Amino acid sequence: MVFTDLDGTLLDHHTYSYEQALPGLELLRQRNIPVVFCSAKTRAEQAVYRDALQLHDPFIVENGGAVFVERDYFKRPHTSTRSTNGFDVLEFARPCAEVRKILSMVRAELQLSLKGYGDMTLPEIVELTGLDERSAALAARREYEETVVTRLSDSDRERFRAALARHGVMMTAGARFISISTANDKGRATKALIEMFRRERGEIVTVGIGDSWNDGPMLSVTDLALQVQQPGGNWADLPVNDIRKINGVGPKGWTLAMSQLLEAQPTGCVAAPGAALAKPNCGTSER
């Protein structure tokens, strides 16, 4: 199964297009390999891409805030916090409304002008992000995190981080903005979902692919960690052991990674953990 970041990985960093990732997705579809979105994007944002790509696998929202699983996706019982709109939900973070209250307190404590999505109008979000109005509205529908858009100096960033920690809130720096939430990260949610799949399907091989350091926790818990290039051709410095760097930016690199992983292998074969990307490990059982 493949866990993938969206912005800058499956989606183009500037245009949010997935066009260049389509050949890689088709390779996975041919082999019935689950594709799990693991992104800072909201449930509403991810729904657009899941519908467009006709994906029905579980997905992880807002940097690990919650796991959403379509009802009856798993045959065996699995852990969930609640059910809503046809999904079982396993939540790791407290509601966004609580996080925004803490942001207000920290803003007063530090006397910093900290602006989040909750402080902005829809036109302001559109102007800042370059998203169209519909996409910006979906991005603002945060359930577990608040997005802080204020650019901070290194010293103010550390003051902000320390103040949040005193209130039990953590910060995650993305490619453009800062996300703040209660104790959750992509790794915790990924690990929980892997356990769900293993209870259902037995032993599986897990692949993680991302581009930014907030993907580190996700990549640290998968069998194989892949990293695509960021715009400009560089790789972010991620504290992940045995990470495989792909010579391709964003979705172009994503398809290259999936091709190297699967193209030389017959349907039903998967790459062994730690093996060369293009080296098959074809046993008698299909996964």
Low-confidence stretches: 266-287
Helix count from the secondary structure assignment: 9
Percent helix range? 25-40%
CATH topology annotation of the largest domain: Rossmann fold
Average pLDDT, all residues: 89
* Estimated structural class: alpha/beta
Instruction: Give the amount of beta strand, in percent.
Output: 15-25%
Q: Calculate Rg over CA atoms.
A: 19 Å
CATH A-level architecture of the largest domain: 3-Layer(aba) Sandwich
Q: How would a textbook summarize the main sheet?
A: 5 strands, parallel
Q: Alpha-carbon distance between the termini?
A: 9 Å
Cross-sheet strand order for the largest sheet: 2-1-10-11-12
**CATH homologous superfamily of the largest domain, by name?**
HAD superfamily/HAD-like
Based on Cα principal axes, name the global outline.
globular
